[in-house]
């Protein structure tokens, strides 16, 4: 069984500083998604302006960029069936008032800005964001040996 759909999930500076990275990775692993890329990055304004190109010029943009530069970001790429849409479900809604418990944002935050994590909002965004944050050789294609380990 192989699924090529991939998404870009990032733990934002607040999530890294609060020590939530392992919990966030666990939610994707527990759901059955495959980690194919991971690194800690101190993002600069240029990268963030490209990443959030759709928001350049909006009133909240400068504050959002300075928050995203306030510490390292854990950048990850996950692979699996419907991972883009499912990733957004695992993250929770943008509006804190719509966040159900059980989602990352719903469990770990109440703030619209400091919302712990980012997830690509479409397959097109995912492909664009993955190529922005990762070099091709930083993504690892691998197969699980679980069938050989679990009887
Ligand atoms: P993200 O891109 O970070 O995963 O968040 P998202 O898709 O759920 O939300 P999006 O609309 O892409 O907005 C990007 C980030 O901008 C901040 N934001 N502030 N009105 C506001 O002050 C406002 N609206 C959005 C949020 O931190 C959101 O994560
Ligand atoms: Mg977004």
- Catalogue the unreliable spans: none
Please give the number of β-strands.
4
The helicity comes to 25-40%
Main β-sheet description: 4 strands, antiparallel
CATH class: Alpha Beta
Shape: globular
| Oligomer category | single chain
Distance between the termini: 19 Å
CATH superfamily: Nucleoside diphosphate kinase-like domain
CATH topology: Alpha-Beta Plaits
Give the H and E element order: EHHEHHEHHEHH
Any chance you could write out the topology, listing elements then pairs?
Layout (H helix, E strand, L loop, with lengths): L5 E6 L1 H5 L3 H11 L2 E8 L3 H7 L9 H8 L4 E7 L3 H9 L12 H5 L8 E3 L3 H11 L12 H4 L2
Antiparallel strand pairs: 1-3, 1-4, 2-3
Brief summary of the model shown:
The protein has 8 helices and 4 strands; from the N terminus they run βααβααβααβαα. The protein is α+β, with helices and mostly antiparallel strands.
Model description:
The chain has a single domain, classed as Alpha-Beta Plaits, CATH 3.30.70.141. Helices cover 40% and strands 16% of the residues. The chain is built from eight helices and four strands. The structure holds ribavirin triphosphate and magnesium ion. Ribavirin triphosphate binds at residues 55, 60, 64, 94, 112-113, 115, 118-119, 121. Residues 4-141 form the Nucleoside diphosphate kinase-like domain. Pfam families: NDK.
Entry keywords:
four-stranded antiparallel β-sheet, ATP-binding, 8 helices, 151 residues, kinase, EC 2.7.4.6, NDK-like_dom, single chain, Alpha-Beta Plaits, alpha+beta, binds ribavirin triphosphate, binds magnesium ion, 16% strand, nucleotide-binding, globular
């Amino acid at each position: 069984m192989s699924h090529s759909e991939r998404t870009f999930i990032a733990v934002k500076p607040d999530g890294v500083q609060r020590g939530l990275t392992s919990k966030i990775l666990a939610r994707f692993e527990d759901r059955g998604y495959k980690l194919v890329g991971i690194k800690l990055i101190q993002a600069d304004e240029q990268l963030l302006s490209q990443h959030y190109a759709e928001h350049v010029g909006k009133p909240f943009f400068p504050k959002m960029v300075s928050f995203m530069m306030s510490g390292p970001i854990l950048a990850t790429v996950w692979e699996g069936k419907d991972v883009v849409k499912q990733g957004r479900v695992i993250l929770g809604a943008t509006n804190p008032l719509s966040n159900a418990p059980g989602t990352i944002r719903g469990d770990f935050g109440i703030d619209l800005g400091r919302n712990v994590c980012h997830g690509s909002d479409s397959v097109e965004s995912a492909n664009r964001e993955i190529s922005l944050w990762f070099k091709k050789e930083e993504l690892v294609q691998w197969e699980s040996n679980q069938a050989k380990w679990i009887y």
